[in-house]
């Protein structure tokens, strides 16, 4: 039997049949392996998926520096307060004028009225002190002026003449002298070089000029009346022919708009009356 079985297997093998040796008796033979053809090659394995692109690491945005604060616009300092201006009249203006006069910037006696002359004097002071030139007196100008000038005296504030007295002629510095200046239009009664009284005066016109020179009082006439011009000449102090120092009502009312006939007119009646009482015949008169 064994020999017959082996022969059968051999025949099968020759015939191209394969008997699964593992198949035992009574078992179905294993299925033949699939024919391998060129078309039936197993597909190539799919390429592995690309690795995931790593997400970029989150970056922390560097905060921008805050913009610089806006530069404040340059603001002009507030202008100093104006204390005095043209058109005003006050005792403070009078003090201003006296202080400017002490510096030689105000060529008149203080009046208390802020006019063109005062404005020009203030401008000159401001220009000299490198201050804004306005012609008005602001707080800065006033403070600096007060710090740089002496406090005015009562005579400085209320001088006896409209214009400051001129420097006296050297002939007026000794003895008793009526010192009469055409430049300052003033009469100063001086004794031993000191001014005892001063007053405004006016002189003759170009047709009847007041004579210059050195004279003496040769006649006093309290209630004199001119026969030549038919006009009163009270408190007359004659010094050169018909020329005299005397009170003039016309000068008191018209001021410098008029002129005398050669005399030295005084407009302050009270002052010339007091002068008449003090002056003696023989006292000197200097007109310059």
Automatic annotation (TrEMBL):
Cited InterPro entries: LD-transpeptidase, LD_TPept_cat_dom, Peptidoglycan-bd-like, PGBD-like_sf, PGBDSf, Transpep_catalytic_dom
Keywords tagged on the record: Cell shape, Cell wall biogenesis/degradation, Lipoprotein, Peptidoglycan synthesis, Signal, Transferase
Signal peptide segment: 1-23
Region (Disordered): 21-79, 147-166
A GO cellular component entry from the record: extracellular region
A biological process term (GO) from this entry: regulation of cell shape
Domain L,D-TPase catalytic residue range list: 176-288
Stored PANTHER family: EXPORTED PROTEIN (PTHR30582:SF33), L,D-TRANSPEPTIDASE (PTHR30582)
Name of the protein: Lipoprotein
